[in-house]
# Entry
Amino acid sequence: MASFNKVVLLGNLTRDPDLRYIPNGTAVASFGLAVNRRYRQEEAWHDEVCYVDIVTFGRQAETVGEYLSKGDLALIEGRLQWRSWETEDGPRRSKHEVVATNVQFMPRGSRGPTREADQTTRPDGPSRPAIPPPGAPPMGGGSGLDEGLPPTDDDIPFVRSDLSDANRRDRWEPLA
# Structure
């Protein structure tokens, strides 16, 4: 039987990443993520928050530990994992967590104005391309043509110019 285990989350870090190294030298970063959901029930709006533990390994863990901090927005891709262990007192504990295979840092502008003072004490993150503003819609809106008028022959790229006006309406052929 086939299985599928894929998780995609967008949320804010609830705490600074905890970066540590296991005995074989592999970096491990763990942090919490708060994922918000807003829904309407009858006439009132409600907010619901889901808190998820995230763990990532290797170079990505080191990058997360260096550049992310509490409150930052991040897009997490990974898989769900169930882990169990025995405490020093003896009882068994277990929890679900997301093992991140990809952590995408979201633009710093998404933090909001309350974090601007924090920028001077924190090193700049990896260079990220600026997100371009949305352009004109792909169909209509901004074409310069009056939307109410039908197109002319000059607006249609596949009309042959060597045909007379009488034949143009009957013979539509693509340009070679």
Q: What stands out?
A: The helical segments are 58-67, 165-168. The longest strand covers residues 27-41.
